[in-house]
Amino acid sequence: MKTIFDIPDLKNKKVLLRVDFDVPIKKLEVGGRGLEIVEGFRIKKQKEMIDWLVERGAKVVMIAHLHEDDGSFGELIPQLLILLGREVGFIKKVEDIEGYLANYPGVGLLDNIRNFPGEKENDPEFAKRLAAAGSPELVEGSKGFDIYVNNDFAVSHRNHASVSAITEFLPSYAGLLVKEEVTGLQKAIDSPKAGKVVIIGGAKAETKVPVIKNFVGKAELILLGGVVANDVLKARGQDMGDSVVDENYQELLVGLDINDPRLLVPEDFVVFDNKILDIGEKTIQKYADAVSRASVVIWNGPMGLFESSSFATGTQKIAEAVAESVAYKIIGGGDTMAAISKFRNIDMSKFNFISTGGGAMLAFLAGNKLSGLEALGYYNRE
Length: 382
Fold this sequence. Notes:
Layout: E1 14-18, E2 25-27, E3 35-37, H1 41-55, E4 59-63, H2 77-84, E5 89-91, H3 97-102, E6 108-110, H4 124-131, E7 147-150, E8 172-174, H5 176-190, E9 196-200, H6 205-215, E10 221-224, H7 226-235, H8 249-252, E11 263-264, E12 269-272, E13 275-279, H9 281-292, E14 296-300, H10 313-324, E15 328-332, H11 334-342, E16 353-355, H12 359-365, H13 371-375
């Protein structure tokens, strides 16, 4: 996989930079108009790459997405200035990119890439338009971008035009963050089985179970919480009351030995309205003890309904145990980050590696090929 360190010279090079600006946002309360960034961790993680390119004389245009219903980047530009420490020019249409580059005023940002037809379909014609700086055809010389850089690990499991097809038209490289993510997560996979503890929780069992299957023979213990724990408990014959259990839990768990002693499930619970909403005190202690003995900890997904303070204790205690562990600690996932941000007493600097990827992190840890990395040649390495 080529990285930005393989680019010989960036002076005056026009760089199309894929960044991760998909952050939680909300409507401003005053009048209900406008948008506000709730948590800017992912945006701040892009600053190093942007600064690195600018300092070497590159002309940078960024592409990124928001969830389709969350509006335009145009409303967020002033907040990007605060988070990135630099002004960002707003480019509304693909057709406007060429003019922007011709009179380059500084780093630019194209509006929400997923609002353009062809992006999610991985349409090569749309990718070609992007590469050509908005022109319908690639033109030799001054028109078009010189280089494509993917610095958005979180979207690298998506087979989209600005992630995959674009690499057919431009010399393409992995950015600093993608390199960091791949190195950190590969370290987690390759680390010795002895002392490796994996914590899996949250609600999306269909993305979590493949990770469990991949790690069950590569980890000493796997600690389960959330819906994925409910699925395993249900499969073991436990009465789950009205707790959330996947309808297809039996199908999801095919190929996994649910009685494997390396799989730890909750022994006690916090129950409300006949639903399991958190792990209980005995389970918290058992999980915390396992974490304290670990040499490597990988955590994705909360233990319960942490959004409510009544059911956040399990997730908070596990977060504290992981933070205080002497192990090499890797955490990731949107809900995990949201939970830790809620618990003000936890020092984020105590985690060795924080992945910006949710689904991408899980797909990588499950051993799946990520289309964005494949397009950069990662899986061709010896």
